Fold:
Amino acid sequence: MCCSHLLETMRPEECSVRAALSVIGGKWKPVIARYLMLGTKRFGELRKAMPDATQKMLTQQLREMERDGVVARKVYPQVPPKVEYSLTPYGETLRPVMRELCKWGEKHMRNSR
Structure:
């Protein structure tokens, strides 16, 4: 529980904000989650949607999100291999969080002009 009255005595590992950021923090994880909220995507689609992300970074972030149970990876047994990514039911619980983050970002962009 990460309440302001507890911050002075709370150990870092007890902070719920840290716990959340360990799963969706970073430059690309929130962006990946946002694109996957639009539906299942192939790796190439995600790569095109995020041209500033290197292939290595995107792969790493997707693996971490898969490890944390947020993203599902489905491999089709064909040549060339086809791999699709989607949100898991647990990942779907990020929808309201991402919606609020988007709203805040829109306000921030307007205010910083």
